[in-house]
Specification:
- The complex is a heterodimer.
- By secondary structure, chain A is an alpha/beta fold.
- The longest helix of chain A has 17 residues.
- Chain A is globular, with a radius of gyration of 18 Å.
- The radius of gyration of chain B is 33 Å and the shape is globular.
- In chain B, the strands form four sheets. In chain B, strands 3, 4, 5, 6, 7, 8, 9 and 10 form an eight-stranded mixed sheet that branches.
- Chain B is α+β, with helices and mostly antiparallel strands.
- About 3% of the residues of chain B have low confidence.
- The longest helix of chain B is centred in the N-terminal third of the chain and has 48 residues.
- The chains are: A alpha/beta, B alpha+beta.
- The interface between A and B is medium-sized, with 31 and 27 residues.
Chain lengths: 257, 864
């Protein structure tokens, strides 16, 4: 494992734990093997990865295609199960949960932004945003909703169908949907992958803002150094391992990896 | 959740239209039948009840019970009326007489299918049929004719018309009025005429009253008058107050109409079953197309249950909308049918289909239940989607996973059970029923195995189409790639065609056997009968034939119905059952109705009668011959005694002399003339078979018969050829009706093909774009779709036809020991296959058009 200067430390270093902020996400010895274990077809996607994300931290996971970065995200977000090891959201061990409990965790503790926006095409922007609340039969926090749509600049698009919105607008609606339940952590899988650079940087600005001013924790997966550079910490994944950890990264620094 | 379902439904309602149509048609069929049946029921009840309402007490012959095909024709002796008149509480009394009386048109040909003469009461206290014009008959040569006949024959007051009575000789009457007939007249083509009571009695040669209506003095209650009448005339008649009679009539009408209703509903069930297959496919496809969306819902926190609910609500909505449409169409259709039936009866225009809650609720229930039930499995499977699925970028149309081991096991289990049941049932008394049950299992097995058959069958069937090139190759691959979907679509057609072919095989074999038997070596060349009037060829005419030099052989046959009861078993041992599958042992006095007939012994060989035990010759010494199936049903053997009860209430007994193999022309019970005479006082025979003498020209014989029967207008004569073609013609008509009723289900199956293909077009949009970009022409793209529709249809119908033929073979082997020869109606089956193939092409035209019109860019741009 190579380390870079400028406050770089290995993931298990104590220096990270000194933060007095509570832990939002924690992976311990997380291993995911596809295919039948012990056969030739078995593929180790991630191999004994341990990391922690503190509350209100903005974390990027970078890596080339096939490095295992997406698997890492899916397992951390409870979308996919781990073969070995464990994953925590807050202090909930999601590797030991039944489908029902896991659904509840997804509903209350996790927000998700996809590369392909993934809005329900038949619902308006507003209906898409409030969908998680409706699924949880919860009560919509009107102030929070207003604050979100205001800061995402989608207030005047609320009654439009996704097909009537630009890509950037759709992704901002998706961001609002991900945050409406005030989740413990917001995961984003290549959130800028389908966006032009202007819309992309607007979204990243918002995500950064949300960690600074709204108390949100954000974990994004990207292969775009410019996007990753917005984070507080960047984990670079290669061949299923965490290869490098960069604290307070710059674009140049990341491009150099 | 409901809101999301609703908005989802709105957005892709186009994809559900075909399924909704399928369900709506099924529901329309059910509602239409129910509406139609209730319209008839109400009309009959109203009409019959109005006759009884103002009557205090009605005396009628006691019924022998309800037997199909057994018409109780018992009457009340004339003397009984005088007995009742003596009772002091009686204010007025009227004995109704009726009997056959067929009207002759101006060409001296009998009108309608039958004719009824009814006595017109001489007091207005009793029910009178309302007059349209003219007056009631007052003298013996006056008559009123029902409105429909009056108009059909263009009659006018004062015109003379001729009636033929049971004796067969016509008499002339003067028309003095036009009356509104009873409601039943609208549903049969028989005429209805009113005569004076005296003339009715004389003309119909009545031996008693059909019913006696009594009106009580105001001081006497209906019930007490009833009791008095019972104590006077005894228990051998049915004596009811007016109110009791009305409700008894109602019960009778309801049970009669519900039999028809149930029979028709069986066809509706088939149609609905086929519609449910369309639903299964639609939901499978819809769910597959939306799998990413469902996964996304799971990602944002929807539980499995919520995903399930979302889809179920959608299916409930589909069922609801479709049922509502079906209910409207159903009522519309039944109203239309009733209007057509009553068009010729102006006085009955009030008869309409009432929109009642019953059929509406039924329609909703059936429509929603079937939709939800058939979408349940695809929906359940969809809830299992992993949330990660949402993250797949390209929604590629996935090729079905390999056909499952589970399916293979289910298939084998059904086949094995079916065979086991059939083999186990062999040689038991219920073999046929058990075999049918086993057949259903095997049928299900075949349906389950259809995904396995798709590839080999389509490869084989499409071999000759290879010359059309690449489009066919692509089409073939498309047919294979979702085998379950292709198989379900095809199986809808399989069910319909299986039933049609099954019935075609049975009917064809039957009519073929009749023809074969009657052309083998029959000793007669002409058949004289009264055709559809089902009365007798008068004895006087038969005697004349007997004396004539034109014939050297005369044979007679009489057909009647009787209630039969085994008095003693005779030499009967129960067959040994291999599995004693709960065959209830009937008590010895089992009562069933049977057709009985007398047949000249010389006709036995022509009818293919063969003795199984005993000697047929015993017939000549006054013994009864029964078929093996009657022997089994009644559990009676040689030497057993049967008691017969006729429709007119006469009772006699006879001894079994021989058991014959079951056959299909004469009745199952053949009684000697003496037994028949003890039951029915027919003055003649139903059929007279004549053998032309040698050396006499055919034309001379024909004109002789014509000449002699001229004075008996109901009598018709046919040569052997026409006789046979009349029988086979009737069978063909029955087959047509059956096919038409199943047509509903077949139509729905074709909607299913169109539906599956259109859904596939949506799914393959990108692929078509790619093909176009690679240089496929519009017509080549269209061709791939048409090929798929054609192949699905061909495959489904071919399997159906094969199953139908096998099933038909089984049925024929089980219902008769030897006399029906199994034969395959190649012509009919070929037409079915051809029609199915062409319909398959038609069903695929719209989807093909849509596919070929996709612009390559648009097709490529569409992502998931």
């Amino acid at each position: 494992m190579t380390t870079q200067n400028q406050g770089i430390a290995p993931p298990d270093s104590k220096s990270e734990g000194v933060s007095d902020k509570p832990i939002a996400v924690r992976l311990s010895e997380a291993t995911k093997i596809y295919g039948k274990i012990g056969t030739e077809s078995a593929v180790i996607a991630i191999d004994r990865i341990s990391l922690t994300v503190n509350s209100q931290q903005f974390v990027s996971i970078m890596g080339p295609s096939g490095s295992g970065k997406s698997t890492l995200l899916h397992c951390a977000a409870g979308l996919d199960s781990l073969t070995y090891g464990s994953a925590f959201i807050g202090d909930i061990d999601i590797t030991r949960l039944s489908d029902t409990s896991l659904t509840k965790v997804r509903r209350n503790n996790i927000g998700f932004i996809f590369q392909a926006f993934n809005l329900l095409p038949t619902l308006t922007a507003q209906q898409n945003i409030t969908l998680p609340i409706e699924l949880a039969s919860g009560k919509l926090d009107r102030d929070w909703f207003d604050q979100l749509v205001e800061s995402l600049a989608i207030k005047d698009r609320l009654n439009h169908l996704p097909s009537e919105l630009s890509g950037g607008q759709q992704q901002r609606v998706a961001a609002a949907r991900a945050m409406i339940t005030k989740p413990t952590v917001l995961f984003a899988d290549e959130p800028t992958g389908n966006l032009d650079s202007k819309s992309g940087s607007q979204l990243l600005q918002f995500l950064k803002y949300s960690t600074r001013s709204l108390g949100q924790t954000v974990v994004i997966v990207t292969h775009d150094a410019k996007a990753a550079a917005n984070a507080d910490v960047v984990y670079v994944v290669r061949d299923g391992h965490i290869d490098t950890v960069v604290k307070d990264p710059t674009v140049d620094q990341l491009l150099g990896i | 959740m409901f809101k999301i379902s609703w908005s989802n439904l709105k957005s892709h309602i186009g994809r559900l239209i075909a399924s909704m149509m399928a369900i709506a048609l099924g529901v329309a069929f059910v509602v239409g039948i129910m509406g139609f049946a209730s319209a008839i029921k109400n009309a009959l009840i109203t009409s019959l009840a109005s006759q009884d309402q103002n009557i205090s007490v009605i005396v009628a012959p006691k019924s022998s019970g309800n037997f199909s095909g057994f018409a109780d024709r018992r009457t009340i002796p004339f003397s009984t009326l005088n007995q009742i008149t003596q009772i002091s509480g009686v204010k007025a009394i009227y004995g109704q007489i009726d009997g056959p009386a067929v009207i002759l048109d101006s060409h001296n040909k009998p009108f309608g299918s039958s004719g009824l003469a009814v006595s017109n009461p001489d007091s207005p206290l009793f029910k009178m049929y309302p007059l349209v014009t003219g007056s009631y008959p007052k003298t013996n040569n006056q008559v009123d004719v029902d409105q429909i006949t009056y108009r059909a024959l263009k009659l006018s007051l004062g015109r003379s018309i001729r009636f033929v009575s049971i004796s067969g000789t016509p008499r002339t009457f003067v028309v003095v009025g036009e009356v509104v007939p009873p409601a039943t007249r609208a549903f049969n083509s028989g005429s209805f005429a009113l005569f004076t009571p005296a003339e009715t009695k004389k003309f119909t040669q009545a031996t008693g009253y059909t019913r006696i209506d009594v009106i009580a003095n105001p001081s006497v209650s209906d019930t007490s008058l009833r009791n008095e009448i019972i104590s006077k005339i005894g228990q051998s008649y049915s004596v009811l107050t007016g109110a009791q009679a009305v409700s008894a009539e109602e019960t009778k009408v309801i049970s009669a109409t519900s039999i028809i209703e149930t029979a028709l509903l069986i066809f509706a069930v088939v149609a609905i079953f086929v519609a449910s297959l369309v639903i299964v496919n639609t939901f499978r496809v819809l769910v597959a197309q939306r799998i990413r969306q469902l996964a996304l819902l799971r990602c944002v926190g929807a539980s499995k249950l919520q995903v399930f609910k979302l889809l179920i609500y959608e299916s409930v909505l589909v069922g609801l909308i479709a049922s509502l449409g079906g209910i409207v169409v159903g009522f519309g259709l039944s109203n239309l049918i009733v209007k057509i039936i009553t068009a010729s009866t102006p006085s009955m225009s009030s008869l309409g289909v009432a929109v009642t809650l019953g059929p509406i609720l039924y329609g909703l229930l059936v429509g929603i239940f079937v939709t939800v039930a058939s979408s349940l499995f695809p929906i359940y499977k969809a809830t299992k989607v992993a949330p990660v699925e949402a993250l797949r970028i390209v929604g590629e149309a996935r090729v079905t996973p390999k056909t499952s081991v589970f399916r293979l096991i289910v298939m084998i289990v059904f086949f094995a059970l079916g065979l086991l049941i059939i083999v186990g049932g062999l040689n038991t008394s219920n073999a046929a029923l058990i075999a049918t049950f086993g057949g259903v299992f095997i049928f299900i097995g075949v349906i389950v195995s259809m995904p396995f058959l798709v590839k080999p069958m389509v490869s084989f069937l499409s071999f000759p189409l290879k010359i059309f090139g690449t489009a066919i190759k692509i089409g073939k691959q498309n047919t294979f790639r979702n085998r379950n979907r292709t198989a379900i679509t095809a199986s809808a057609l399989t069910i319909g065609l299986m039933l049609v072919s099954l019935v075609a095989v049975i009917f064809y074999s039957f009519s073929g056997s009749v023809t074969a038997q009657l052309t083998k070596d029959v000793p007669f060349s002409y058949i004289v009968s009264t055709g559809k009037f089902k009365t007798v060829v008068p004895l006087a005419l038969v005697n004349e034939f007997e004396k004539s030099k034109y014939f050297d052989g005369i044979y007679t046959e009489s057909d009647n119905v009787a209630i039969v009861k085994a008095v003693s078993k005779g030499d009967y041992t129960l067959p040994k059952n291999r599995f004693n599958i709960a065959t209830p042992r009937r008590p010895i006095n089992t009562v069933i109705t049977r057709g009985i007939s007398t047949v000249s012994y010389d006709l036995f060989s022509a009818y293919g009668l063969k003795a199984q035990s005993g000697s047929l010759l015993s017939y000549n010494s006054g013994k009864i011959i029964i078929s093996s199936s009657v022997s089994k049903a009644m559990e009676i053997g040689i030497g057993g005694v049967i008691e017969f009860t006729s429709e007119t209430g006469n009772i006699t007994t006879g001894t079994v002399g021989a058991i014959m193999q079951s056959q299909n022309i004469a009745s199952n019970i053949i009684v000697p003339q003496s037994t028949m005479n003890a039951l029915y006082t027919d003055n003649g025979y139903n059929y007279v078979f004549l053998k032309q003498s040698k050396g006499i020209s055919t034309s001379a014989v024909v004109s002789y018969i014509q000449n002699k029967s001229d004075s008996y207008p109901l009598v018709t004569s046919e040569n052997l050829q026409t006789f046979i073609s009349n029988i086979t013609g009737k069978i063909a008509v029955a087959l047509d009706i059956f096919t038409a009723l199943l047509g509903f289900a077949l139509f729905i199956a074709f909607i299913g093909i169109a539906n599956t293909l259109s859904l596939s077009v949506i799914e393959r949009t990108q692929e078509f774009g790619l093909l176009k970009a690679l240089g496929f022409t519009k017509s080549q793209i269209g061709m791939t779709m048409i090929f798929e529709g054609f192949m699905t249809s061909l495959m489904g119908s071919l399997i159906g036809i094969i199953l139908g033929v096998i099933g038909g073979y089984g049925v024929i082997k089980s219902i008769s020991s030897a006399s029906i020869i199994f034969s395959i109606p190649w012509g009919n089956l070929g037409v079915y296959l051809l029609v199915a193939a062409v319909a398959g092409v038609f069903a695929s035209l719209l989807p093909a058009r849509r596919a070929s019109r996709l612009a390559p860019t648009e097709a490529m741009a569409q992502i998931g």
